[in-house]
Amino acid sequence: MLLTSLVTLLAHTAFAAPSTRKRGASNPTVKGTPQVIGLLADPTLNRDSCGSNLFGDRALWVCRDSQHYDSNGIPNLPLFTSSASWTNLVSGGGTQLSMYGDNNDDSFYPLVPGNCDDNQAGACSDGTRYPLWANAPPLVTSFNGTTTTGYTWISNSHISGLSDLVENPSVTLYKITYTSGADDLPTAEIINSAFWAQGDVPYGTYGGVVQDDTIFLWGQGTNRDVNLARVPVASVEDKSKYEYYVSGTWTSSQPVLGDTAATIDNASAGGQGTYYYSNPWQAYVWIGQPTNSVSADFYITTASAPEGPWIEPFKFYSGVNGNYSLGAYTLQANPALSPADSNEIYLTYTKTDAVGDNVALYTTPLILVEWED
Ligand SMILES: *[C@@H]1O[C@H](CO)[C@@H](O)[C@H](O)[C@H]1NC(C)=O
Ligand SMILES: *[C@@H]1O[C@H](CO)[C@@H](O)[C@H](O)[C@H]1NC(C)=O
Ligand SMILES: CC(=O)N[C@H]1CO[C@H](CO)[C@@H](O)[C@@H]1O
Predict the structure, then answer these.
(1) Signal peptide span per the entry (predicted)?
(2) What's the predicted TM-score (pTM) here?
């Protein structure tokens, strides 16, 4: 009798063993109630749109427009277009909330020569701006035991107020380098200020994933369609080595923006977000916001390959919105904060409140979401 049970048990175990892939791969389901951990902050900086990645053994955060506070705690001018910070990771998962590192009030991503670069805000004398707002954090492409290397693609947007003066602007490629052990922040340098030409699909600006020495880069033009390119890690700076996913196959001929044969259906909910690869799900994941949303409504979609098919994006969590006109944006996933096999994700977003004379005060809530196995 005992022997029979044991055999049955073993048979069941053997049967169940091959399927270690979690249900999140095709049906992500939140476990319990997501936990608001607190606010990530460098107390000397007011800034929005932070995103993170792993550099050495710490999280590097890069945020957009950054400014200090006056003696009443109201954000003041001047501002610089980006700033970076470290946070110390907590063993087992998560991060300390205290952000640190000296930016010397210079933009982390150097201004592009010729684009009103005589000030760190990218402000032009005619009142327009080149804001250099990154939509994605640095993509870490290699770590050789000493040096961490990453890349960021940023559109050379030229704006008046919040309106684009140029549709589908060219894209600058930045390289980020960090030597382990150094207290300083990593350095960013311009590799090519027109890596993608004006009118091209801006691959990389919408996010990227490195998997098995291949970089996958998503791009979204003003028509909101999401397109996909890939390149070997070693050739990231060489445009001739890129391939593009068009009509269900990889090709070296770059599709024109708007070619619907290059659209990756359901690869996002349309707004800003983060792509990453989930080890426990063995799936590619996008988490972010819908098109034109200014609420903390987090959507998710997943796929077993970057090319798709992606599931229909759906909402899985709503955070608290700020009381400023743009109450919440830059919804991000922060996979670098979790051990590789943890079935969880840390979310952040920019919560904007109005203080003083309708000045935007930014905070960055950190939220832990655990998933059902
Ligand atoms: C890592 O890369 C850096 C920069 O390319 C180089 O200076 C260093 O020697 C490399 N270290 C190892 C251990 O390969
Ligand atoms: C908006 O939120 C800020 C920060 O909590 C608060 O100081 C301010 O009074 C609020 N404004 C309104 C109009 O509720
Ligand atoms: C939400 C969303 O974008 N859904 C789309 C998923 O892709 C199919 C086409 O394959 C569309 O019909 C859906 O609208």
Answers:
(1) 1-16
(2) 0.93
Distance CA 366, CA 284 (A): 22
Q: Is the CB of 265 under 6 A from ligand 3?
A: yes
Closest atom of ligand 1 to CA, residue 145: 13
CA distance 174 to 184: 18
The DSSP annotation for 48-89 comes to ---EEEEETTEEEEEESSEEEE-TTS-EEEEEES-EEEEEEB
Nearest CA to ligand 2 atom 14: 323
Query: Is domain 2-364 given the CATH code 2.115.10 in the classification?
Result: yes
- CB burial class (10 A; 0-12, 13-18, 19+) of residue 184? exposed
Q: Is the distance from the beta carbon of residue 144 to the nearest atom of ligand 1 less than 6 Å? A: yes
- What is the Cα–Cα distance from 301 to 207, expressed in whole angstroms? 14
For the chain, domain boundaries: 2-364
Polymer length in residues for the chain? 373
- Distance (angstroms) between ligand 3 centre and the Cα of 35 equals 31
What gap in Å lies between CA 195 and CA 176, rounded to an integer? 16
Structure-block tokens of residue 368: 């832990």
